[in-house]
């Protein structure tokens, strides 16, 4: 029974990721046609690898324990809440949402939806997801290691690259005003 739940959850998340990658590809093509410049392309593979290892990690670890967490329903609720925030982010950014950092000259920083309250709400949602899914299956090693690796990548690589991109965007906004 638990292994069926693990594989069901795996299928749901893989399907989500494949759909999101297709949307990101479509949005990237649109952004590139609009003259987008990519920032931080070198670290993109690291996140791709992190998510692949995370998926394999909680499937293997959860299968070894073959048991749901005593509070699986809490972790499932946390995961579902993170999904709501993630899809709110995607909807708020529209065609500007991407898994890559793309800046279109002349565009403005989006400040609607969850971006009114937080600068990086999608990263928070993904961090919560990386912790909560393994915890549903008691896969604490995967939960902790993936969350720590994600935090390091976000704090030292991704967010600084995104901040650099925002500075370029702010400079183009200033040029437009002049």
UniProtKB/TrEMBL annotation:
Signal peptide span: none
Stored Gene3D superfamilies: 1.20.120.1630
Pfam families registered for this protein in UniProt: ICMT (PF04140)
Transmembrane segments: 6-23, 44-60, 72-90, 135-157
Subcellular location: Membrane
Keywords in alphabetical order: Membrane, Transmembrane, Transmembrane helix
Membrane topology: Multi-pass membrane protein
Name of this protein: Isoprenylcysteine carboxyl methyltransferase (ICMT) family protein
Record organism: Sporomusa acidovorans (strain ATCC 49682 / DSM 3132 / Mol)
Lineage of producing organism: Bacteria, Bacillati, Bacillota, Negativicutes, Selenomonadales
């Amino acid at each position: 029974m638990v292994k069926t739940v693990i594989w069901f959850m795996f299928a749901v998340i893989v399907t989500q990721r494949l759909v999101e990658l297709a949307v990101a590809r479509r949005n990237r093509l649109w952004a590139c046609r609009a003259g987008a410049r990519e920032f931080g392309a070198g670290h993109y593979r690291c996140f791709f690898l992190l998510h692949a290892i995370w998926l394999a990690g909680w499937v293997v670890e959860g299968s070894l324990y073959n048991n749901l967490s005593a509070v699986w329903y809490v972790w499932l609720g946390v995961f579902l809440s993170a999904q709501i925030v993630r899809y709110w982010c995607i909807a708020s950014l529209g065609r500007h949402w991407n898994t890559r950092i793309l800046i279109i000259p002349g565009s403005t920083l989006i400040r609607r939806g969850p971006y009114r309250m937080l600068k990086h709400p999608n990263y928070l949602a993904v961090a919560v997801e990386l912790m909560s899914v393994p915890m549903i299956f008691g896969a604490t090693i995967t939960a902790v290691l993936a969350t720590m690796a994600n935090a390091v990548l976000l704090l030292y690589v991704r967010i600084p690259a995104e901040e650099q991109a925002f500075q370029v965007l702010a400079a183009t906004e200033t040029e437009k005003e002049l």
